[in-house]
User: Fold this.
Amino acid sequence: SSELTQPPSVSVSPGQTARITCSGAVLSNQYTYWYQQKPGQAPVMLIYKDNKRSSGIPERFSGSGSGTTVTLTISGVQAEDEADYYCQSGDSTDTFQVFGGGTRLTVL
Amino acid sequence: EVQLVQSGPEVKKAGESLRISCQTSGYTFNSYWIGWVRQMPGKGLECVGIFYPDDSDSRYSPSFQGQVTISVDKSINSAFLEWNSLKASDTAMYFCVRGGFITIGGFDFWGQGTMVTVSS
Assistant:
């Protein structure tokens, strides 16, 4: 299966750590990418190739995981981190790309 | 500076044809995958398909295969997404995205989005 599963929502208080998971069989042999999308804006790539931060992305964003589940961790969450987060990977043959359903992060 | 600038919003009727565009600059167009991502109102991201300008390799997600066509014009470093017969369900924001260098990879640069509205 090429599906990627994310929790629909995650809520944390400012300063806490938020963890957003992404699960799928393809993740065991394909890289994962993470994106942040704020309302009315185009998505921004946060993490590429599982755990590399894109240029200009704060160090509080990190990617990790192995096997069929990967995690985006946001340490010391700030109010400005409230957004939708998506994981993305290729299908098992790298023929097409798939996104997870997205996770809405709410900062309480 | 890498830029992807998309054409403006479109309002069409079901059954009409449409082509939206993405003008790129700031990088070697032929060497990077370029694609399109759909976002229906209030919904998540879906990859429509991707295209490699250097050898014209195109790959479509199963849901979009046969429904749209991605093309490029290398002379003007632009990509296009085309419909022959629009449906109301095509109403969405469409983002142009740059993929990886030679390999597909993730999408590191995004256009501003083109809103397509199709009335039945």
Remarks:
- Chain B touches chain A at residues 35, 37, 44-47, 49-50, 59-62, 95, 104-108, 110-113 (CB under 8 Å).
- Chain B is about 0% helix and 55% strand.
